[in-house]
Each structure stands twice: as structure tokens, then as C-alpha cells.
Amino acid sequence: WICPIGNPKPSPCVRGPGRPEGGDEAPPSPLPRLRGRSRLPSVQSPPTFGFLLDIDGVLVRGHQVIPAAREAFRRLVDPQGQLQVPVVFVTNAGNILQCSKAQELSALLGFQVEPDQVILSHSPMKLFSQHHDKRMLVSGQGPLVENARALGFKHVVTVDELRAAFPVLDMVDLQRRPKTTPLPRNDFPAIEGVLLLGEPVRWETSLQLVMDILLSDGNPGTGLATAPYPHLPVLASNTDLLWMAEAKMPSAFLQLEAAHVVSDMHEAVRLVLGKEGWAL
Q: What GO terms fall under cellular component here (predicted)?
């Protein structure tokens, strides 16, 4: 589907150069038409349309480019390897740096993709500046601290750091239980919010510690008679339940499942960001 932009009058979407949905005549196409063997003029006006493209299952599956996507980009790139129309890539991936995702796409697609052409699932968190000065617990994997700071969060604590300060909170894995009872901590600064940037590796640890932070109002070393309300803010990204990689069957139960558990147990998630899909 090609949607013209920058038109002062409402215009229906056009399927290729054909007719608009529900109309008898096609509006003028935003794409130049070639007649016979004529060539495009050497100087062209800026394009009046662009593309906003999903990545996984649309352009690539895992580390393999979908053949139709490669052919489509061949038509969009000039002989110098430059895109001739604006293109932005969106993904629910969040366990990678924006610049690293751009480099990954550049290697797969065969042309230069800039970091500002990539929107990760948590990229919109840059807009929520009211939380940027709070001390936030961050859950996920990959470059968590770097991603959180790139989003504007100045004070972040990882789940591993919280677990090291309060090892008795993580009791599911028998092999990781402390062998002796550690001294209680009363010098740990309070947590003021939670960031779920992506699916964790040790789900049981992340879920346990996130719930402990919520139930203790950010002070896991203390006990409260009742659960606080309103609770601390929880910002989550990535609404995927299923996604396509190289496997024949879809990969499942990613960040969405963790957000579901937290939400169902404590009605906690304030904000969920990401592409279309399940939302609270």
C-alpha cells in the first residue's frame, strides 16, 4: 500500500498505480510514470510519500532476508546505494541498542541504515520526561543500562544489582539461594518506578523482584501491612506474544507474558509501548 502524504486535501490510499478503494477513477499517482523507454529526469522533486516498515516476519526472518523484501529495496535504492524515498523501520525488539540495530539492518539489506531510521519498542519512552529523574528498576536483557540512559533515565538499577543487595528475595532456584542469612540492608535508596524493556532470561527472578518492589513501595528491605496504592509507575515495552524467526513455528511468550503476569497479580502496568497487538 502506498499512501501519499503532504496533500492538503484528503486522498484515499492507492494500491500501486491502480484505483482507489471504493472509487471509479484513480487520483494522480505520487510515483512518476514511465512511458515507453523514457527515463526519469536527472533532477527530481522530493518524494511525497515514505515507508514505515516492520522488520521481523516482514523484511527478515531471524538472519535471513525475505526475497521479496530484497527485490523491493532494489527498486528503492539508487546506484549509489542511497534510498530514494524516506524509510523508517519499526520493531518490538528492545534488547539491543538503536545503533546496533541499524548496523544489523545495514548488513542484511545491503545499504546504509542510520540509527534515526530505527524505532525500537521502547523508543517512545524518551517522551516521558516526568520519569527520567526517578530511580528506576530495569528488567530485560542485553545493554539494559545503556538503553535506559539513552532513553533519558538518569538513575537505573538492574534486577541483578537489586538481587545482590537483597539475595533472600530470590528463592525459586534452589541452587541460587543464599547459604547463610545476610545482614539486612537499610542503606539501599528507594526504587521509584519499574522499566520492562524486554523479556528477561531468568523470568522467576525478574517477576519476583518486580513484585517485591511494588508491594514494598520501592523499599524491599521493609515490610508493609497493606499494598500501597497508587502503586509505583511501571512502564513496559513490546506487546509481542508471537513473532517469526527462522523456526517453522512462531517464537512465543516474550515480554507480553511478563507484563501479563505483573498486571494480573497487581494491576500494575501503567503504560505499554510497542507495535500493534495486545494492550492493557
A: mitochondrion
Residues 268 and 217 in one domain: yes
Q: Report if residue 27 sits inside a domain.
A: no
54-63 pLDDT tens trace: 998 889 988 8
- Whether 110 maps to a domain, the answer reads yes
Task: Classify residue 93 as left (phi > 0), alpha (psi -120 to 50) or beta.
Answer: beta
- The verdict on 155 and 257 lying in the same domain is yes
Residues 152-179 have pLDDT tens digits of 999 999 999 999 999 988 888 888 888 8
Task: Name which residue leads in pLDDT, 36 or 263.
Answer: 263
| pLDDT for residue 6 | 47
Taking residue 218's Cβ as centre, other Cβ atoms within 10 Å add up to 22
Same domain, 195 and 236: yes
* pLDDT at residue 136, rounded to an integer: 98
Task: Give the integer Cα–Cα distance in Å for 194 and 199.
Answer: 14
Q: Provide the whole-model pTM.
A: 0.73
Taking 70 as the threshold, does the pLDDT of residue 31 lie above it? no
Q: Which long-range contacts (CB under 8 A, 24 or more apart) does 168-175 make?
A: 169/208, 169/209, 169/212, 169/220, 170/204, 170/205, 170/208, 170/209, 171/208, 172/204, 172/205, 172/208, 173/202, 173/204, 173/205
Shared domain check, 250 and 140: yes
State the pLDDT at residue 184: 75
- Expressed as residue numbers, the domain containing 103 is 51-119
**CATH code of the domain in which 170 resides:** 3.40.50.1000
Helix/strand/coil for 228: coil
